[in-house]
Specification:
Length: about 220
């Protein structure tokens, strides 16, 4: 009907009563649910599909003042955690889960889970490779590092990258042993005395523990 002033009035009344600000121009699908909605902001050109859920403090915002599509599009069955910011004319595909306080500025593929600042895509392994995990564990013990506690239930992208490095180190180690064996078989001796020890890579203080006095706080 073109009564934009009336729509704006309803928006302000709803914000005053609920703490949720939804621009009248936003397009929202069926069965949209806002849980503990204080601080939720939904921009003018935002589009939300069916069966989506937002928690408190979520922002579906823009990154520019240019006319046209400036806000995100959420397809069906998207869940956005508390405090998350989804910014710009991006598309969050169906079935996506966005972690609390994440900042999303790029498209998210279907069924993905995004966490962190900036948002990083993480996925659970459906069938973990036990043999690969055992090899990683053996290599990690040599290096004095183990990242599996962070990746067992909710894999972190940085820890996953380190796991890939451990896999690579393990394969290279096996190849080097095979090459050294072949060279020795030809009667050539290899000097390995200068190779660094891959024992526990721990950093120790130069001071002994018994020589360290607890920090004194003035006024005690």
């Amino acid at each position: 009907m073109g009564l934009k002033w009336l729509a704006r009035l309803f928006s302000h009344i709803a914000r005053w009563l609920t703490g949720i600000e939804i621009h009248p121009g936003a397009k929202i699908g069926h069965r949209f649910f806002i849980d503990h909605g204080m601080g939720v902001v939904i921009g003018e050109t935002a589009e939300i599909g069916d069966d989506c859920t937002l928690y408190h403090g979520v922002t579906l915002g823009g990154t520019s003042w240019q006319k046209g599509k400036r806000h995100p599009t959420l397809l069906d069955n998207v869940v956005v955690g508390a405090g998350a910011k989804v910014l710009g004319p991006i598309t969050v595909s169906s079935g996506v889960r966005i972690g609390s306080n994440a900042v999303i500025t790029k498209d998210v593929p279907e069924g993905g889970t995004v966490v962190g600042v900036p948002g990083r895509l993480v996925r659970k392994q459906e069938k973990p490779d036990r043999e690969a995990q055992q090899k990683r564990h053996a290599t990690a013990e040599k290096l004095g590092f183990d990242a599996y506690g962070a990746t067992r239930d909710a894999p972190d992208p940085v820890a996953t990258a380190i796991n890939r490095m451990l896999d690579h180190i393990h394969v290279m180690d096996e190849k080097m042993e095979t090459m050294c064996g072949a060279i020795k078989h030809l009667g050539i001796e290899i000097d390995t005395s200068n190779l660094p020890d891959l024992g526990p890579c721990e950093i120790h203080s130069a001071e002994k523990e018994q020589d360290i006095e607890p920090e004194k706080i003035e006024g005690e």
